[in-house]
Design goal:
Strand order of the largest sheet: 6-7-8-3-9-10
Distance between the termini: 35 Å
Strand content: 15-25%
Shape: globular
């Protein structure tokens, strides 16, 4: 994926600041996202990743800064505002209703009804089957409560719910956490397909291999600030680790410091 100057960002976040009491959790952060791009946001615990992303998803209000969608400044005061701008967030917990099936989860809170006001279960199942055929053709458990599904299948349901309601900007928080190798590969394939379809994806992950496998660009945060944004193909894995651990851009890291990372 190339980000040509003529391509307008889906998202532009500038001069973002968030404080909690005396703690400056996010300091003058910049982040942008283009269509058909996976932009990884990484950093150690407490670096400010989740706080920054919550300002985009509507779960946290920034003290200052601007957010633009398609080049137009917007105000995001809550999750409904974010959804109205095509922003969907898939948290690590997935926020699925365990006791109901995939169609019920996909339309949770936005159920389809018949002209008599009853739930239109067949229409919801049909829509779910069509979407899953595109996203995850192997998915067959349309009648099973989601608590009986594997982690990868549950992630598929959460992604399908976001995509069905016209998400253009997908925030994924640790999408492969606690998944086995086969399920991790399944989720990675889903992410690649969404990128091919033109969605912009902000990927938050502690798994540096996920980041390297999926990301087009990587932004590293350290103590609330931005260390830098790099094209994945322009840096080594060790250089990204040095950005995360040392809080330095690759140009400022010495060979000795890189060697020390392997201690």
């Amino acid at each position: 994926m190339t980000t040509e100057t003529t391509l307008k960002p889906l998202v532009g976040m500038e001069h973002m600041n968030v404080s909690f009491g005396g703690v400056h959790a996010v300091k003058d952060m910049y982040l942008d996202l283009f269509p058909g791009e996976v932009h990884a946001l990484v950093g150690g615990n407490g670096a400010g990743k989740s706080t920054l992303i919550k300002t985009l998803s509507g779960a946290q209000t920034a003290d200052s800064g601007t957010i633009e969608i398609d080049g137009t400044p917007v105000a995001i005061h809550g999750p409904i505002d974010a959804k109205n701008h095509g922003i969907e967030t898939i948290y690590q917990t997935l926020a699925l209703a365990d006791n109901i099936d995939a169609p019920g989860n996909m339309f949770l809170g936005r159920e389809l009804t018949t002209r008599f006001g009853n739930l239109d279960d067949s229409a919801m199942e049909d829509a779910t089957r069509k979407l899953m055929a595109r996203l995850n053709p192997k998915y067959q458990n349309f009648k099973s409560p989601v608590d009986s599904l594997s982690g990868g299948q549950r992630q598929s349901v959460a992604i399908a719910r976001a995509v069905h309601f016209n998400a253009r900007i997908l925030i994924m928080d640790e999408p492969t956490a606690a998944l086995g190798p086969a399920e991790t590969d399944q989720v990675r394939q889903l992410i690649r397909q969404l990128r091919e379809e033109g969605l912009g994806i902000i990927l938050i992950s502690h798994d540096i291999h996920d980041v390297y496998d999926l990301a087009d660009r990587i932004t590293v945060m350290y103590q609330g600030g931005r260390v830098g944004t790099v094209q994945k193909d322009d840096v080594t894995l060790d250089q990204v680790l040095a950005m995360i651990i040392l809080g330095k851009p690759p140009s400022d890291v010495t060979e000795a410091e890189l060697e020390e990372l392997h201690g």
